[in-house]
Design goal:
Pfam families: MDMPI_N. By secondary structure, the protein is mainly alpha-helical. Helix content is about 50%, strand content about 5%. A hairpin with a 2-residue loop joins β1 (about 105-110) and β2 (about 110-115).
Length: about 200
């Protein structure tokens, strides 16, 4: 399985979690600090947009931000969010399936960096935030063998930058022999045993 396959699989996991999240749970908390379920969905949607634009080298509008609503979710009723996300996610996966998408430089928002690094970051982001959404809404979430190691390596590579930038929490302590994906979650600042209060 190559990098494009891993990214495609990570997108599939995130989309499944979005589709499986009941609208009645959108106000619930998530393991992602300060994000409700609704905000995790919007954050993943923004990630799909970033990934699509990065792979195709489309110009980035600096006014776009995930702070309020991802552009393609603005004005849509929440009942349409899952389908809108699925469509943008499919476009992103298709774009990254082209080998040249992984070559040279691209942008992630306004930041220039190697395209392969962007693909790696996105792979980890989609899996970790997919888990956020799944565990917050009572869904099963299974990361296949191989992809779990890719996510761990991706999280570990961006952790110093994430902690310096304040968008990744301190590493959570887990056993050295904990499952690979649990170690990835812990490295991202999440408690792998997190569960919604009262559920």
């Amino acid at each position: 399985m190559d990098s494009a396959d891993h990214l495609s699989r990570s997108i599939d996991l995130a989309v499944a979690a979005i589709k499986g999240a009941s609208l009645a749970r959108y106000d619930d908390p998530s393991p992602c600090s300060d994000y409700s379920v609704r905000e995790v969905v919007n954050h993943l949607a923004f990630g799909f947009l970033l990934a699509h634009r990065s792979a195709t080298r489309q110009a980035w509008d600096p006014s776009w931000t995930a702070a309020d609503r991802t552009p393609y979710l603005q004005g849509r009723p929440e009942s349409e969010w899952a389908q809108a996300c699925a469509e943008e996610a499919a476009a992103a996966a298709q774009a990254w399936a082209v080998p040249s998408a992984w070559e040279g430089e691209s942008h992630m928002g306004g930041s220039q960096m190697p395209a392969a690094m962007i693909g790696s970051i996105m792979t980890s982001e989609f899996v970790v935030h997919g888990w956020d959404l799944a565990v917050a809404t009572g869904q099963p979430f299974h990361v296949p063998s191989g992809l779990d190691q890719v996510v761990l390596e991706g999280v570990e590579s961006m952790a110093p930058m994430g902690r310096e930038g304040g968008w990744m929490g301190a590493e959570v302590t887990v056993a050295a022999d904990a499952p690979v994906f649990e170690r990835a979650l812990a490295a991202s600042g999440r408690d792998p045993r997190w569960a919604p209060a009262g559920r």
